[in-house]
Amino acid sequence: SGRVEGKIALVTGGASGIGRGCAERLAQEGASVVVTDIQDHLGEEVVRSLGGAAVYLRHDVTDEDAWISVIGEVKSRFGRLDVLVNNAGIGLGCPVTDMTLADWRKQTAVNLDGVFLGVKHALPLMRAGGGGSIVNISSVAGLSGAPNLAGYCATKGGVRLFTKAVALECAALKDGVRCNSVHPGVIETPIWTTVVGGQPGVNEPPDLDAMTAMFVPMGVKGFPKDIAEGVLWLASDDSRYVTGSELVIDGGITA
Ligand code: NAD
To answer: Which residues form the Ketoreductase domain (predicted)?
Structure first.
């Protein structure tokens, strides 16, 4: 049987990139996966490709009412929630002096408020089922700074310590919930098209191969599957003694 056989998993931002990779890997190992996103077309495509093992729900992670309705839907369909992967995120890069307060808040709303709201609203359902595993997707930019990514680093560093605080709160309650962060490096996904502002001719997206050559000691970029393997382990009972931990999957960038 699979490594997460029979578990119910919710993956935010599951329509694309790393989230999609996680949804696929968890489904392959026997989980029922609820994929949520704001890109309905892509989300429905993911669910079709996974067959009966998945459902798609439209869900903006910055919206508290949407979280309440998504968790309610999970409860009524499955009666429990074992795994939450807080993956939805955006990257807005520019010099700190050029960053508008509106963009700062937009990025914080998705990357940090979204993770907070997910934890807040998923925990009661997880606890009612006797425990679970929360995996928050941070970044290598949550471990050290990067130029032109001050806002992004602030959110991802916030996710890292939020994760540890929640892990300790759950451990103190002996509620059976573990909470860990995952820190990807350079992973080939569409997020890189927006990371420097996404304005063609003004701010071109970074050349991933050039970035890889410059920053990644192993000399190769990663793929969503590389992150999904770590998320799968944290989601499974194989990591039952791991909480408040940070799993770095970056080809050596932060070593
Ligand atoms: P992606 O853009 O391919 O996927 C992100 C998904 O999140 C998209 O499907 C998008 O529609 C969704 N999303 C955006 N805003 C949302 C909202 N408000 N509500 C719900 N869904 C929303 O990017 P990705 O690379 O797969 O990123 C996934 C996570 O991994 C992000 O948190 C990102 O910061 C993190 N990360 C990525 C890399 C990388 O190199 N790709 C590196 C480090 C960390």
So the answer is: 7-189
Query: Quick one: which atom of ligand 1 is closest to the CA of 190?
Result: 3
**220 touches 251 (CB < 8 A):** yes
> Rounded to the nearest 5 degrees, what angle is found at the Cα of 185, between the Cα atoms of 226 and 223?
30
* Res. 66: pLDDT tops 90: yes
Indicate the pairing of strand 32-37 with strand 83-86. Answer: unpaired
Q: What is the pLDDT of residue 52?
A: 85
Rounded CA separation 168/41 (Å): 38
**Which residue numbers are catalytic?**
152
The pLDDT score that the predictor gives to residue 205 is 75
Rounded Cα distance between 191 and 91, Å, is 7
**What does the alpha-carbon distance between residue 149 and residue 130 come to, in Å, rounded to a whole number?**
39
pTM for the predicted model, two decimal places:
0.97
* Single-letter residue type at 111: N
pLDDT of residue 4: 98
90 lines ligand 1 (CB under 6 A): yes
SS (H, E, C) 211-238: HHHHHCCCCCCECHHHHHHHHHHHHCHH
Give me the domains of the chain, ranges plus CATH numbers: 8-249 (3.40.50.720)
Give the tens place of pLDDT for each residue, 216-236. Answer: 999 999 999 999 999 999 999
